[in-house]
Design brief:
Strand content: 25-35%
Radius of gyration: 20 Å
Distance between the termini: 8 Å
Strand order of the largest sheet: 9-8-12-13-14-15
Number of domains: 2
Shape: globular
CATH class of the largest domain: Alpha Beta
CATH topology of the largest domain: Rossmann fold
Mean pLDDT: 94
Oligomer: single chain
Number of helices: 9
C-alpha cells in the first residue's frame, strides 16, 4: 500500500504515513490562470492499493473535485484499489429534504466519488452516520467515532471527578452517555431546537447546577457557532467555573472561535481533521492508523 496525501490533509496524512511506514505517491498540483486544476501522478501505481487522505474542507467543491481527479487518474494508471480517508466529508448534512425542493447533495457526492474510481471511504464522525452507512451500492463506507479517543486524550492527567460532560442537544445523547459511562463521569444533555427556515437556534435553560464545575462540552461540528455560544453562555450563567469545548470538525470562521473564547474562562479544542491554528488540536492519527492497519495491512 502507498499513501497519497491531499493538500487539505497534509499534517494528518504525514502522521498516518509515519505510523504505518507507508511510501508516498508523489504528484503535482497546480492551478491554471482560469482557475482549473492540473494534476499529474509522478509515481508507479499499477497493481498497488493507494490510500488517499483528503479532507473536503475548506473549499468544498474544489477539494471534492481534487479527490475525484486523483482517484480517477490512479485507476486509469492501473491502481488495484483506491481507498480514501475523507476526515470531513462535505455535503453530508444535506441528506434529508426538510423543505420542498431542497437538493439532497449528500447522495450525489457519494455517487460522484464512486464513479471517479473510489472503492472505499473512511469518514470521521460523519453527519447522520446511520443514513450514511446504508450500503445501497458497491461503495464501501465506514465511519469512525473519534470522540471517546479525544476525550481520553484530553482527560489524561486530570482528575475526572472535577469534570462534567455536556451534550448540546438530543442528537448528541448516545455519544455523551457512552463517553460518560466509559470514563465514569457525570453528564447532562441540553435541549435545543432549530427553525427549519431561519435556522435560528433556541436552547432551553438547563435544569442543572453547574456551580463551581469544570464543564466539557462535546460536539461534532462548529460552523456558525450559535449552538456552542448559546450552550456555553447558559452553562456559565448556572455557575460553571470553566468550560472546554471539544469539537471534531471546526468549519467556522476565525472570528467565531475568537467570540467563543470571550465567554468566561473558556478554551476550544478540536481534532486535526481540519488543520487550524486558532484552537488546540488533538491528533487522531493513532485511531485512524489502527483502523487502516487492522483492515488493510
Amino acid at each position: 500500500m502507498k499513501i497519497l496525501i491531499g493538500p487539505n490533509s497534509d499534517s494528518l496524512g504525514e502522521n498516518i504515513a509515519k505510523r504505518l511506514d507507508l511510501p508516498y505517491v508523489n504528484f503535482n498540483f497546480k492551478q491554471f490562470y482560469d482557475g482549473e486544476t492540473y494534476l499529474q501522478i509522478d509515481d508507479q501505481v499499477e497493481n498497488e492499493d493507494i490510500l488517499i487522505i483528503q479532507s473536503t474542507y475548506p473549499n468544498q467543491e474544489k477539494s471534492l473535485l481534487e479527490t475525484m481527479l486523483i482517484a480517477s487518474t490512479l485507476k486509469e494508471l492501473g491502481a488495484d484499489r483506491v481507498l480514501t480517508i475523507i476526515p470531513y466529508l462535505c455535503y453530508a448534512r444535506a441528506d434529508k429534504r426538510k423543505l420542498k425542493g431542497e437538493a439532497l447533495s449528500h447522495h450525489l457526492t457519494l455517487s460522484y466519488l464512486q464513479n471517479s474510481g473510489v472503492d472505499s471511504i473512511l469518514t470521521v464522525n460523519v453527519h447522520n452516520k446511520e443514513q450514511y452507512l446504508v450500503q445501497d451500492s458497491g461503495l464501501e463506507k465506514q465511519n469512525l467515532n473519534v470522540l471517546p479517543f479525544m476525550v481520553g486524550e484530553f482527560l489524561k492527567g486530570k482528575e475526572k471527578n472535577d469534570w462534567i460532560i455536556v451534550g448540546p442537544d438530543k442528537g448528541s445523547e448516545t455519544d455523551i452517555i457512552q463517553i460518560a459511562k466509559e470514563f465514569s463521569i457525570s453528564y447532562y444533555i441540553l435541549e435545543k431546537s432549530r427553525d427549519p427556515v431561519t435556522h435560528l437556534i433556541q436552547t432551553k435553560k438547563p435544569n442543572f447546577d453547574f456551580n463551581d464545575k469544570n464543564v466539557l462540552v462535546i460536539d461534532d461540528v462548529v460552523s456558525s457557532g450559535l449552538t456552542a455560544k448559546t450552550a456555553c453562555s447558559l452553562i456559565f450563567e448556572q455557575g460553571a467555573k470553566s468550560v472546554i469545548i471539544l469539537f471534531v470538525h471546526v468549519l467556522s470562521k476565525h472570528d467565531v472561535i475568537s467570540d467563543l473564547k470571550k465567554i468566561g474562562d473558556l478554551s476550544v479544542y478540536s481534532s486535526n481533521t481540519i488543520t487550524r491554528t486558532d484552537v488546540e488540536q488533538i491528533d487522531i492519527s493513532p485511531i485512524l492508523s489502527k483502523y487502516i492497519e487492522d483492515k488493510y495491512l
